[in-house]
Amino acid sequence: DIVMTQSPDSLAVSLGERATINCKSSQSVLYSSNNKNSLAWYQQKTGQPPKLLIYSASTRESGVPDRFSGSGSGTDFTLTISSLQAEDVAVYYCQQYYSTPNSFGQGTKLEIK
Amino acid sequence: QVQLVQSGAEVKKPGSSVNVSCKPSGGTFSSYAISWVRQAPGQGLEWMGGIIPIIGTTIYAQKFQGRVKISTNESTSTTYMELSSLRSEDTAVFYCARGPGWFFVNWGQGTLVTVSS
Lengths: 113, 117
Description:
heterodimer, A: mainly beta, four-stranded antiparallel sheet, about 50% strand, B: mainly beta, seven-stranded mixed sheet
């Protein structure tokens, strides 16, 4: 099974500043046939279901603000929020869907400093 | 956008089973897969298994194999997750989630299942 590890576990960033969350997979999630990474990012606010932000490592889901971006390939990935807003306070999860069982990182709690 | 509507909260005894339903609003099946994800209190997300309703193919995480059954009723466009042999550690919110594969564009509101004697 592929293990997903996020860092840090928690993060406090000032409003308007950049927030960066890392995700590492125990094996590559890059499909050589289409050169796409099977990696998604979700945001979960308290008491709500998760919300898809990014898929294929860097494709923003429709309606997601452009301050959210994803990067990386193979085993190392990053979610960046370019200018933190108050409404971005949440737990963020990465997920690999390269192979089943698909698996999530442990989550990164993002707060305002 | 498609919304997934789940059945309500349940309280169950250890050793019993629970059945949670999930129906797309305005809903018919599509080629999208539907998965079930468990989230224990204060914990992360755990994929349990999924089904592609249009072809009826199911796949389960080995951790839940033998205890979970995912099924669909085409006539009502409803997907079900049955978890048996419940124990206290199964107390969690269970989400159904839908996507064009095994990542999830749409999520249900979640169903809290409490296992307590």
